[in-house]
Amino acid sequence: MQSDILGKIQKKDGTIIKFIEPSRECANVVAVDVTDLFLDGVDSDDCSLACYGDSGVDEVYLKQGVIGIFEQSPTTKESVEGDLKNIFKNAQLLLNGVVFLFRPRNSSRINTNISYFFVCNRNLTSSESEIRIRSIFDKLFPKYS
Fold first, then answer.
1. 34, 72, 105, 116: least CB-packed within 10 angstroms?
2. 38: alpha, beta or left? (left if phi > 0; alpha if psi -120 to 50)
3. Residues 64, 82: contact at Cβ < 8 Å?
4. Which of helix, strand or coil describes residue 29?
5. Which residues contact 39 (CB under 8 A, 6 or more apart)?
6. CA 106, 145, 115, 70 torsion-angle sign
7. 0.90 surpassed by pTM
8. What is the pLDDT of residues 111-128, one digit of tens each?
9. Residue pLDDT, tens place only, 87-108
10. Quick one: pLDDT band at residue 59, thresholds 50, 70, 90?
11. Sequence-ordered list of residues with C-beta below 8 angstroms from that of 85, at least 6 positions apart, any chain
12. Can you point out the beta strands (E) in 80-140?
């Protein structure tokens, strides 16, 4: 999932593909269809884990060592975590959040029965902005449950 998210905002070398700096009038959100990932085994906790890492999910869902795209933990340059923080830097600075889209199992790609789960970049997006972003998706899709 993290590769899909990053692939929408940057090239492999980290060069930004699209998106402008977010502002009060502009929010950057990436949409990822997770229906076909992991044999339809993705749920909202997996989405939170991808964005917030182990620190963002209940203990029962911990994967031990997952670094989330939006996770703000201190790391050193020499560590794997440091490398990931560098790779995730653009997402942390540009994305207000990620909307994960779910279609029913065995449905066609043109199926419009889609539900969503939104994960906010808490370090970039205020709760007021998060509510505004969610309200847009609420008009389009039902929430994933």
1. 105
2. left
3. no
4. strand
5. none
6. negative
7. no
8. 678 999 999 999 999 999
9. 899 999 999 999 999 987 766 6
10. confident
11. 67, 73, 75
12. 97-102, 115-120
